[in-house]
Amino acid sequence: MSVVMLKDRAEAFESIDGLQEGGFRDAVLRGLALPQKMIPSRFFYDERGSELFEEITRLEVYYPTRSEMEIFDRHGADMGAYLPEARALVEFGSGSSLKIRAMLKAMPQLTHYAPIDISGEILTREAEALSADFRGLKVVPIHADFMSPVELPQELKDIGKLAFFPGSTIGNLEPYEALEFLTRVRETVGTGGHLLIGVDRKKDTETLVRAYDDPQGVTAAFNLNLLTRANRELDANFDLPSFIHEARYNADRGRIEMHLKSLKDQAVSIGDCHFEFTENETIHTENSYKYTPEEFRLLARAARFEPLATWTDTNERFGVYLLRSEG
Fold first, then answer.
1. Considering the entire predicted model, what is its pTM?
2. Which end of the chain has less Cβ packing within 10 Å, N or C?
3. CA-CA-CA-CA torsion for 153, 157, 162, 163, nearest 10 degrees?
4. From the CB of residue 158, how many other CB atoms can be counted at a distance below 10 Å?
5. Are the C-beta atoms of residues 213 and 245 closer than 8 Å to each other?
6. What is the pLDDT of residues 155-171, one digit of tens each?
């Protein structure tokens, strides 16, 4: 994947840039008016969606969480040894504190932990729990959307920083968005700062599709919950049995795609707005890009990060990369 390809993809997705701004209602109305209907994946995570995702992470076929935790458990001390000057750990999209605990234990020299999350309730709960368990650590929660520029508190400005972005969330971004995000992270940590990031790898299609279309139907419920949320919050009238979950691997783009497919010709209303669906037409709800190690290192260097080290799980399905900002 070249920098030229990243620019080409940016141009291809210019028409949906507006979906990244505004609330749920605005994003749904704009997304359903596109030739390829879509709803941004960030709206999966209402209370029920968050519960379903936690259930997904425990599924046998959903390897990413299990593989990444294996990496942190096996190599956390090695990661910490690379970072003796780091004093502040800044986590983008903190959510649950399961993975961060492994890093905090591996880096006793840390004085500050700054979790950034869009959910104020989860942020407060996890910050209180970590403050209680790591008495010598100052927890500085930041309630913000990490997809926008985030201003750090003054007390973190002049100390060595490590950004933490686990979970392969980078894969949910279009490549041009991933480049923009990495560039913002580099500016946040400053010259000589570091980023520790989890990235899912390309692998056989069967393994990928099963991870996003599990036999128990949990991922299907997670995807369909978007329509339940729209009915509840937006005065929509989606006929839930008339839509099914579909996961497919797009080999040309190197990504898993999640869709909600209409089983028949039908009309949907959201307030005073009306949308027509033909049989088999889909709402595109999520992408999850997969990167070879070479592809991700190229992306990192395009954002002016230098790769320092890479760790993987026993089955080599997932990678954790340590990058240093080149300023």
1. 0.87
2. C
3. 50
4. 10
5. yes
6. 999 999 999 999 999 99
